[in-house]
């Protein structure tokens, strides 16, 4: 992944790292497999067979999301239109999840750049802001954070990403809800990325180091490796080449021990050896990055 993709994974990531703990009776988090949206749809549909009331509405919003992750936004909106027709008398969580998924049908990490028109961004913005407002009033901290982190896909300038990230982090830090507090590592990563884009490397490094410490405590090896990569990437930007090199070489070994590899580690190693004047080794890593080999 390139750095921008690493930033997006850590947000919504929604796709692998974002916590959606059960706020109501239905535990959507337990049913999600973001690597396999079709399988997730099957799980939600099976749960829907015996669900009632708000639980049924929430499950339908997640089925819609599974289609969005597969790029079928029209199908997702059709499902959400049916949900909207049933929202009279529904609780806050069902309403907020409907709005979040509606926004994601217009702007998300899944959308191709050509689809991100001004009208699409405005539709997404309205849905996300409404979701955030309703989530805050209902005390649904994790869902409010989700909406704020999605606004960074609407407002993609680093200053805006920094603003939304810090607003979301403030909620996470103040919240007593585990689902909200679990967002801290992802949010710190996103804040660090925005600061890096703004050239504020010292501040970015602090955020990435905080994110790394949280990931290490969380015990997810791949997420920890990504967090460590972000630290090294920033150290290279600060011209602290020896420190960055030590981390990237460690990551290379960790990937080898795990039976895989990361072309981005190879790419960074090429940059670092080139910066240190070792062109021969840099070219070796250029070749590895290009081939994706170990």
Please give the structural blueprint:
Elements: H1 3-11, H2 28-31, H3 37-48, H4 53-69, H5 73-84, H6 92-104, H7 118-138, H8 141-154, H9 158-174, H10 178-181, H11 184-197, H12 201-218, H13 221-237, H14 241-257, H15 263-275, H16 279-291
Helix pairs in contact: 1-11, 3-4, 4-5, 4-6, 5-6, 6-7, 6-8, 7-8, 8-9, 9-11, 11-12, 12-13, 13-14, 14-15, 15-16
Figure out the total of helices: 16
Q: Could you tell me how far the N terminus lies from the C terminus, measured between alpha carbons in angstroms?
A: 15 Å
Beta strand %: under 5%
Helix content: over 70%
Quick one: biggest sheet? none
Radius of gyration: 20 Å
Shape: elongated
Task: Provide a brief overview of the structure.
This protein is mainly alpha-helical and 294 residues long. It contains 16 helices and no strands. Helix 6 runs parallel beside helix 8 (141-154), helix 8 runs antiparallel to helix 9 (158-174) and helix 12 packs antiparallel against helix 13.
Q: What features would you describe in this structure?
A:
- With 294 residues, this protein is mostly helical.
- 73% of the residues lie in helices and 0% in strands.
- The chain contains 16 helices and no strands.
- The radius of gyration is 20 Å and the shape is elongated.
Labels describing this entry:
16 helices, 294 residues, single chain, disordered N terminus, mainly alpha, 0% strand
